[in-house]
Amino acid sequence: MRILTNIRDTDLRGFVLPLAFLVLWYLVTALQLVNTKLIVPPAAVVAAAWDVVGSGQLLTGLRASLVRDLSGFAAGSGAGILFGLLLGVSRWAERLVGPTFHTLKQISLFAWLPLLSTWLGTGESAKILFIALSAFYPVALNTFEGVRSVTRAQFEVARVLGFGRLQRLFRLVLPAASAQIATGLHLALLYAWLATIGAEYLLGSSAQGVGSVVIRGKATFHVELIVVGMLLIGLVGMGLNRLAALVEGRVLHWRGPAR
Amino acid sequence: MNSSRFRSLAALFGAVVAGTLAFAVPSSVLAQDKPKVIRISYSSAGTGGRPIVGGSTIATAHQQGALEKEFAKDGIKVQWTFNPGAGPATNEQLANGLADFAHHGDLPIIIGRSTGLRTKILFSYTRFGAAYITGPIDSPAKSLEDLKGKRLAVFKGTASQLALGRILKKNGWTERDFKTVSMDGDTLRAAIATKDVDGGFIAPFDLESRGVGKLIYSTGPDPELASQGVFWVSEEFERKYPDIVQRVVTTLIKVAAWGSDEKNREAQYKLWSNSGTSYYEYQKTYLDVPLKWRLSPLLDEYFVENLKKSIVQAKEFRLIRRDVDINGWLAPQYLNTALKELKLEGYWPEFNAAGKPKLAQK
Amino acid sequence: MTTATSLSRLAAPAAPLAPAAPPRRHAAVSLLATRAVDVAAGLILPLLLLGLWQYAVDRHWLAEQILPAPALVWDSLVDLWQSGELGTHLAISLTRLAWSLAIGGGAGLLLGVAMGVSAPAKAYLYPSFQLVSQFPVIGWVPLLIVFAGIGEALKISAIAIAVVVPVAVNTYRGIRNIPRALLEVAAVYRFTFGQTVRRLVLPAAAAGIFNGLRQGVMHAWLSLVFVELLASSEGIGYLMVWGRQLLQLDIVVVGMLVIGAVGIVLDRLLAWGEARLQGWQRQAY
Prior knowledge:
The structure holds three protein chains of three kinds. Chain A is mainly alpha-helical. Chain A has eleven helices and no strands. Chain A has one domain: MetI-like fold (Orthogonal Bundle). Chain C has two domains: 3-61; 74-284, Orthogonal Bundle (MetI-like fold). In chain C, α5 packs parallel to α8 (152-176), α8 (152-176) runs antiparallel to α11 (206-230) and α11 (206-230) packs parallel to α12. Classes of the chains: A mainly alpha, B alpha/beta, C mainly alpha. Chain A binds chain B through residues 38, 118-119, 121-122, 204-206, 212, 215-216, 218-221, and chain B through 45, 47-51, 82, 84-85, 89, 92-93, 96, 98, 186-187, 189-190, 193-194.
């Protein structure tokens, strides 16, 4: 019963545009209004998707990309939290490191890639470092802001309760900043996926990965492969977004109602 | 000294001797100086980045497993790295110390040397190949001039860019007269098919047979314009293992002789077509010139003079910033020894600076 | 405690000793002093890093071909600037950015206003926007390359897409957050639709719109660098590709510096814009 009411509640009008797009796509290719070598019919895409999934290519590629993505994400966010904490907790750290940090942040992400890949080759290490870099900044910035948002009053309470440095860190600062940190991690997850795909497009055609599927599609002229790859990339992006939102919601829920 | 003390001293002495021996023995083995692995970089990859290539003696040797067979008895592995990023990527590997030998085009190797990368040229692997400019199937261009100001694609940093420079200079133009974009082979083919570029520095045959490309300009086998490639060894590797270098060269020259034999023409095309480039295309591009000429490994007068000219051109087209000194760069002794050992002296004709054979053909 | 506070205390003591001195001057001096300390402190790390860079070059931590010396990078920067090459490529990149911002921003604004103001529009459009916003911004590029080629059309459309989504979504949210009371006042004054939009909706949602613009600009710059690295014949990204192909890594670093500089300028411009906006908003009260 619940499911039915939910379906009725969801505004079906939201589906109109995507459906219209699909219909248009189908018509345009069926009526041969465009070069079907370029704009492949949806059926071909489905067939290609079936093929690629069946051959296991897609799953191995997906797994490779996700492993890369999550390793880079873990490394970058970990470093980001530490860094953000340092900058937030110590005024002097912020004075010394802050300006450099904020300036380097302005170098658009992909500008780092040529140099990194020259130094580390086009293997895994360059890609993972690049992905870690993409995750580092959002997490560091948000952690920093989260730490700074801890109010004086809360510090007073910690002092009254006789918290030591470490206790203050783990029982006051981190929990207080957790909402911001969660936001940062959410952003970082999205950026990391972006960086993973970007690095695959720009660097590897022989390495495994979803991006490589797309590149191979371009190289061998199979536009269906490109579309399948793209759809998969989008789906993973959405999945990660959902996951992050869920976790963030959990964290906020723990924090209770807004102050 | 009492007996127990004497015994402990003897034990200590024995331990020291044993320890020294333990170190001494492996070092005498080390004195034979054999690498565990031979790392070869190839400045190209097959279609879609696949690790099979064609179009050179080294490609043939890779597919035949010639080097693997030669070094199997020594327990030395041969590790091949195929670079979709072509010559520039090979340079980066050399800079990172990741390559011992490499197949490399003339421009990238000149660039490498100009930035201080130390190599020794062992033999050459291609010459007199024609250069082509291919356009989309419906291109109105009839000649290179029609493409002036339009989008022209070439893989920058590779021998193709230098060859393009030579062609443009011959007509009195420079890259600036066109909108040159850098693209690798796969991307370039796709771009011509989708008409994203007006012309590209690539052979037309595959594209023509698929109905998506059209030849706009060809140089034909012109000794003045054609690229040449080299097979090199890093100075470090050569210093440490000269005997290994000799064996590598001898093995590859043997393959070169096989490949230069007209009897093996078809078989070689078949091998090369595993790279993704079609048999048909190799057939057409290797048609005009005897195999012995195209695949000649000699470091003859033509090669040396052409190399010197290329260096001057590279500087002129502002592709290198520092001068390149050719002294001490070539190591022809390995090639000569190989030719003597394999009794192949005189098998390949020597060419003079103008690209004409010096002596009558054998 | 910290040098800054003791320094400001140093600047202040003149007050009790010279009661006639105006207190404002001391506040200004202490402000200047803290600023000076901040600047000095901020410079320590960059100078250290520069020193580390030079040390790494001298000690050959990486081959000299792939780790250019700071001096070489500087020389190349000056060279490229003086020859005009850098200026040309930069101008091309910035022009692309401007066009994409105009097209993407304009489209995003229109769509966002439409969604915010008209409930049916929101019902039809918003879910698709949400879908697309979760797609990695650069995911479209290969497909766009197939359709739009690699000319300006591709670059501008790829970057415009990156701008449309954040602008539209933030504009919509900004409008949705307008307090009902204000809309009722507009109704009382019998504003026409156009007047409502111009004199109420846009100003009230300005903060949200600006936020979207800020995100849009950052996304645009990100995509622009990516697209130029991938397929271009001119622009800063292309300059970096060129440098890398010719093993002139110093040009790559020059490219990074220029990209960073543009990032800083864009950030500053947006911050200034935001401050002006807030100032205006405060004035309204």
